[in-house]
Amino acid sequence: MLSTPAEGVCTPPSPRLPRPQPNGASPVRRRGEEGAGCSPRRTSAPEPPDCAVAEKGGRTGQDAPVQRARDGQPLRVDDAGAELVDLLARSGLEASLSWTGGVWRVEPAEPGAGVRLDLADAELTGGEELVVVDPELVPFAALAITRADGSRQASDRTVSGRLRPLAGRTAATYPGLEVDGSPGGRLTGVHVVVTDRLLLEADVAAVGAALDALPLVLLGLVGEGRPTPREVLARGLDAVAADLATQLGAEVGVALLSLPAVEGADVALLPALLERAGAARTSRARALARTGPHSQGAVGPLDGGPTSATWDEVVDALERGADVPAGTASPAVVRELRRLHPARHARGAVILFTGLSGSGKSTVASGVVAALRAEGSRTVTVLDGDRVRTMLSSGLTFSREDRDLNVRRIGYVAAEVARHGGTAVCAPIAPYASTRAEVRRMVEEAGGVLVLVHVATPLEVCEARDRKGLYAKARRGEIPAFTGVSDPYEAPTDASLVLDTSRQGLEECVSAVMALLREEGLVLAPAPAP
Ligand SMILES: Nc1ncnc2c1ncn2[C@@H]1O[C@H](COP(=O)(O)OS(=O)(=O)O)[C@@H](OP(=O)(O)O)[C@H]1O
Ligand SMILES: Nc1ncnc2c1ncn2[C@@H]1O[C@H](COP(=O)(O)OP(=O)(O)O)[C@@H](O)[C@H]1O
């Protein structure tokens, strides 16, 4: 399933819209050669592309008459959704299309599962074909329904079937394609090397060795779910193109193409994608790509390029603040890599203590703050539970909703601190795993590192301490929903460190946190004694 599905707004079909006239009569031809994809379609004549649809099981699009679901009401998608559905249909990919709350989600389906389409209240049965139209109501894909599940009103209603392309969308330039800095270009008659990450020297050597003809264009994939930000990839590919041009004695262009990552389907989408991008559709066109561990399921290291070990070594060296071994990447690419993988001690960090009231969160957090300040390499912001409750979250109760809001606010502020390279130390109870996960997400999205410390002092010890007399009140029923007594605490399973202050002294707890921070490279190891 997709980790980062593409989303776009879907307009519910309106009975007042003019009916589209899908062209479903043309035969579906056989799948093109691997890597060569479909023949170019350069006219607007309504002719289906030379792509096959999946032919495993069920009916193919070839023999299915196009009938319109819901008495002619097609499914209308926005531009972004249309581009993706079009590529999926042209690639013969099995996919899951779901429509939830007016938003399209496109996900590859389980192998062999055909296409799943979740629709709130369409009346669909097996044997029909659902037409997908773009914002101009041009039909461009059809879903041959083989199964319809769920009751009519059920919002999780699912129909299964197979997508096939119709002739509506012409293969003009692909939106979001930028060739040599200008939007709206085409990639006619060129070799194309596709990547969504920066190229190391071994990649460059592999490209040089694999090429048997020119001209060459380095095509960078950017967009949601892709590992390399657009500007970083653009600068990195420009540098590599300049090197390659010198090495090959030929012109090497750079193109960028916006396409959200489709996990497990990126490589399969390439032929259709290159066709839409206008690249040469002969054997001279090639996409040198395979899926790799660092590509987040997207197009990864080039065939013959560096092994994942090489890439791991580069990232590891950068994150330790060390130099990249000479000859691994060009200086310009190293500069971009440094931006992408800053040394950990220069990255923002959030230390989130979680645990029951009285477990020792604030006391240990204060000790860590003092140790960090003494160490001196990081600026520290403290988001102490009590101060947050009086300042940031005054007026909030201890209902689940308010606790979540409180912890989310702490997470938001902490993530902003991390975004600018600082360290935030937070000590709320944060009793719910899902909210802690949200904090982790916010921090990581801001480029920071989250260190979760579970102060797992047993309830009996916390209750015996009862510094504020709150446990006694909670037991008497004077405080409702008290964590550990009458409200839940979900112990983390993803903590970096677990402490128990009933068995570990304060100094030991603080040292354990500081040792972890050093181990993680977030704090530099003390300089050796002279
Ligand atoms: N019902 C209830 N449950 C738990 N705790 C309660 C409650 N009412 C008041 N208090 C006091 O509020 C402190 C916890 O606030 P937090 O902001 O850390 O809680 S939460 O993360 O929003 O759940 C907590 O302080 P600490 O002892 O510092 O944890 C309590 O003293
Ligand atoms: N090893 C320890 N680490 C932290 N606190 C400890 C330890 N041993 C005893 N304590 C006491 O436990 C209490 C913890 O209170 P506090 O830090 O406010 O907890 P919390 O913030 O989790 O509510 C303090 O009175 C502290 O002195």
Automatic annotation (TrEMBL):
<comment type="function">
    <text>Catalyzes the synthesis of activated sulfate.</text>
</comment>
<keyword id="KW-0067">ATP-binding</keyword>
<keyword id="KW-0418">Kinase</keyword>
<feature type="compositionally biased region" description="Pro residues">
    <location>
        <begin position="12"/>
        <end position="21"/>
    </location>
</feature>
<protein>
    <recommendedName>
        <fullName>adenylyl-sulfate kinase</fullName>
        <ecNumber>2.7.1.25</ecNumber>
    </recommendedName>
</protein>
<dbReference type="GO" id="GO:0019379">
    <property type="term" value="P:sulfate assimilation, phosphoadenylyl sulfate reduction by phosphoadenylyl-sulfate reductase (thioredoxin)"/>
</dbReference>
<comment type="pathway">
    <text>Sulfur metabolism; hydrogen sulfide biosynthesis; sulfite from sulfate: step 2/3.</text>
</comment>
<dbReference type="InterPro" id="IPR027417">
    <property type="entry name" value="P-loop_NTPase"/>
</dbReference>
<dbReference type="InterPro" id="IPR002891">
    <property type="entry name" value="APS"/>
</dbReference>
<dbReference type="GO" id="GO:0010134">
    <property type="term" value="P:sulfate assimilation via adenylyl sulfate reduction"/>
</dbReference>
<feature type="domain" description="APS kinase">
    <location>
        <begin position="347"/>
        <end position="500"/>
    </location>
</feature>
<dbReference type="GO" id="GO:0005524">
    <property type="term" value="F:ATP binding"/>
</dbReference>
<dbReference type="GO" id="GO:0004020">
    <property type="term" value="F:adenylylsulfate kinase activity"/>
</dbReference>
<keyword id="KW-0808">Transferase</keyword>
<dbReference type="GO" id="GO:0004781">
    <property type="term" value="F:sulfate adenylyltransferase (ATP) activity"/>
</dbReference>
<dbReference type="GO" id="GO:0005737">
    <property type="term" value="C:cytoplasm"/>
</dbReference>
<dbReference type="Pfam" id="PF01583">
    <property type="entry name" value="APS_kinase"/>
</dbReference>
<keyword id="KW-0547">Nucleotide-binding</keyword>
<dbReference type="InterPro" id="IPR059117">
    <property type="entry name" value="APS_kinase_dom"/>
</dbReference>
<dbReference type="InterPro" id="IPR050512">
    <property type="entry name" value="Sulf_AdTrans/APS_kinase"/>
</dbReference>
<feature type="region of interest" description="Disordered">
    <location>
        <begin position="1"/>
        <end position="71"/>
    </location>
</feature>
